[in-house]
Amino acid sequence: MTERIYFKDASCLEFEATITSSGQVDDQYFVTLDKSAFYPTSGGQSHDTGYISELTVTDVIEDGSKVKHLGPKPFGSEGDKVHCVIDSDRRMMNRQMHTAQHLLSSVFDRLIDGLTVSVHLGEEYGAVEIKKSPVSDDTLKKVEDEVNKLIRDAIKIEVLFVHSSKLKEAGVNLRKPPSREGELRIIKIGDIEQSACGGTHCDNSSSVGFVKIIGTEKLRGNTLVKFLSGSQLLKDYNQRFKVTEQMARDMTCAVVDLPEKISKLDNLQKDMRRQITALQRQLLPLKIEEIAKLVVGKSGISIVSEQIEDIDPSVANNLASSVAEKISGVAMVLIESRLIIASSLKNVSAKQIVASIVEQTGMRGGGSDKIAQIGNVSPEIFDKAKTILLDSLPNG
Ligand SMILES: [Zn+2]
Question: What is the distance in A from the centroid of ligand 1 to the CA of 195?
């Protein structure tokens, strides 16, 4: 059995211990210790990382009553004394996130009778699955505000050890009934929240910093509420700050004016697109003449197969059909990534040529005898399509 230092002291980040067993699984080495402050993955909370005798601990797992520390190099043998150090940033992130989760679960319970049925405390964000659906944006805002108030109130957080049969006598009122009997470890956040939990928590609600609900998902008829807290929230803010500052500089406006500025640019772009399309429609006859000149023949059939730049996709079909009419033959054009085949001949079906290309390239497409197309075509596929076109034409 490993004595778990973090049960009583989540602030302990450095300790001395003795190796009680060691071994190897695949390319990972492990040790168990007589005591450990390393938190093993359990109860929805992810493991600690750190060092044992300056060797990296990459994973920590539970093995019955023991804690197994895993890493890429052998840590030592039974009886060796080792000095252990825990990664403080990761520990603090987990403490903040776990306490934030208890606060959120407590407030959801109190405000909307939303029982927490599962939790996820991940590397990027935390989440609570609430037995309520849907949960309105208004409710989410109220819950977030209330949790941040509890954080500001700097409420003391204590760890109690009480036997499951003596909860009433000890004045303990758990948010959720305990899942097992025996001695329970209880996280008590002032008078507002008491839960049986084995995780590492802050000593005071104020250490959580802030909580921000970042989104919801429907899950098994419940609502998964995703949140950021403490250092995860700051990391996210720093990323967003960098991006929005750069955008504001590029667009020479304040961050708050970005949506309006982007909307104006979007409208301008749509306007210009409309004008370009109108101009291209006017110039279409000239473009058709130009492309029709690129005609080649095979067995008496006139063919044009070209990749065409600088043309609006909205006139693509019209262009292909007109070229086919003009040359009294078959036109195959690639415009952006759209391959269009048009035929003005009765004995050559555009649909059948597309079917041959689809069969030999695994692309998807279809159409009529006069005009057919394939999407997402690369220049390499287009080259292949040219060969397939020539092969599929009738002789003479
Ligand atoms: Zn917990």
Answer: 7
Radius of gyration of the chain, Cα coordinates, nearest whole angstrom: 33
**194 CA to centre of ligand 1 in angstroms:** 10
The CA 267 to ligand 1 mean position distance, Å, reads 49
- Tens of pLDDT, residues 75-126: 999 999 999 999 999 999 999 999 999 999 999 999 999 999 999 999 999 9
Ligand 1 centroid to Cα of residue 16, in Å, is 27
Distance 196 CA to ligand 1 centre (A): 7
What amino acid occupies position 256? V
308 neighbors 290 (Cβ within 8 angstroms): no
CA of 105 to the centre of ligand 1 (A): 10
- Alpha-carbon gap, residue 8 to 185, rounded angstroms: 9
Separation of 98 CA from ligand 1 center, angstroms?
6
pLDDT by residue (tens digit) across 241-262?
Answer: 999 999 999 999 999 999 999 9
For residue 104, the tally of other CB atoms under 10 A from its CB is: 27
Spacing, Cα 198 to ligand 1 middle (Å): 6
Q: Residue 52 forms beta bridges with which residues?
A: 55, 84
CA of 65 to the centre of ligand 1 (A): 19
Q: How many beta carbons lie within 10 A of that of residue 141, not counting itself? A: 11
Half-sphere exposure of 328 (CA within 13 A, CB side): 2
Question: 34 C-alpha to center of ligand 1: Å?
Answer: 25
Give phi and psi for 133, each to the nearest 5. -160, 135
Q: Which domains does the chain have, with CATH numbers?
A: 3-86 (2.40.30.130), 92-237 (3.30.980.10), 283-392 (3.10.310.30)
Closest CA to 210 of 244, 237, 185: 237
Distance 229 CA to ligand 1 centre (A): 15
303-338 CB burial, b ≥16 within 10 A, e <16: bbbbebeebbeebbbebbbbbbbbbebbbbbbbeeb
Two structure tokens written together for 329: 């033959």
Provide DSSP, 81-125: EEEEEE-HHHHHHHHHHHHHHHHHHHHHHHHH---EEEEEE-SS-
